[in-house]
Write a structure and sequence with these properties.
The chain is α/β, with parallel strands linked by helices and about 280 residues long. Helix content is about 45%, strand content about 15%. It binds manganese (II) ion.
């Protein structure tokens, strides 16, 4: 069975109004989009009408964690500032409600931490036992958020990032360990090829280890461009996804620059991945 293809609308935010992006993506053969998680900045009713008019579904919401916006930088589930943590939990809940409004099914959760500890380029700043303690400590909060999501029919997916974003959760192995401790049907893992390229020993092992917990993937090349524009071996990634019987979305998450360039990039990247399958 072929994969389903989606793309993150956050990639287009600085390029053009969302209606124009949607029209292009529908033409190019995308099945769905991932809406960016800024519940206060959009009119959900109008948005849903736009998606419906182009027959594109919304597969999920991309949490705007640690993005360049002021709000994004304050979204940290791991912080010494209890107020910041509470606000971040509320942000997750608002995004879950946003999922419902857009008839979407899932939201990614990333573990950004206080700046003091976030920059860990060699994984040496925080000792391993301390990292394990921090991850154990967050299980009750993730379980509670997962129940909140489950009650509304939404999946919560933990996404490992690379060492330049967080020192705490950077590999599939760590994400799977946390997901097993949360142990809820609607709590899973999201793997992103850009982060995997920096952190994983092997794309294949990471995917095989995640197996049934893997409910969503983000595809971008090593340079964050569309697949095929860098040097990640997407053949082995697709092969590994087939091995585990993956039937969820391949959702592209590229950095894009200009209107003209993005249309070529989003089309060629999608065609490239489809040609592998
Ligand atoms: Mn991602």
């Amino acid at each position: 069975m072929p994969f389903k293809y989606s793309i993150t609308l956050s990639s287009f935010r600085n390029i053009e109004p969302i209606e124009r992006t949607i029209e292009t993506l529908a033409d190019q053969g995308y099945n769905a989009v991932e809406m960016y998680g800024e519940p206060e900045k959009v009119n959900l009713k109008i948005l849903l009408d736009v998606f419906n008019s182009f027959d594109l579904s919304v597969c999920g919401i991309t949490g705007m964690w640690g993005s360049t916006s002021l709000e994004g930088r304050k979204r940290k589930l791991l912080s010494a500032d209890a107020g910041l943590v509470t606000n971040s939990q509320k942000y997750v809940q608002r995004c879950i409600d946003m999922c419902r409004s857009l008839e979407a099914n899932e939201l990614n959760v990333c573990l950004f931490a206080d700046d003091r500890s976030a920059f860990d380029p060699n994984h040496h700043v925080i000792p391993e036992p301390q990292k394990a303690t921090v991850l154990r400590g967050i299980i009750p909060m993730l379980s509670e958020l997962s129940r909140f999501a489950g009650d509304r029919g939404i999946r919560l997916l933990l996404e490992p990032l690379n060492r330049y974003s967080t020192p705490y959760l950077t590999t599939a192995e760590e994400a799977v360990a946390v997901a097993r401790q949360v142990n809820q049907e609607n709590f899973g893992v999201l793997l992103d090829t850009f982060h995997m390229n920096i952190e994983e020993d092997s794309f294949e092992n990471a995917i095989l280890k995640s197996e049934r917990l893997l409910h969503h993937t983000h595809f971008a090349d090593n340079n964050r461009k569309m697949p095929g524009r860098g040097h990640i071996d997407f053949h082995s990634i697709i092969e590994s996804l087939r091995k585990i019987g993956y039937q969820q979305y391949i959702s592209f998450e590229p950095h894009l620059t200009s209107t003209q360039d993005y249309k070529m990039a989003t089309k060629c990247g999608l065609d490239f991945i489809k040609s592998i399958y």
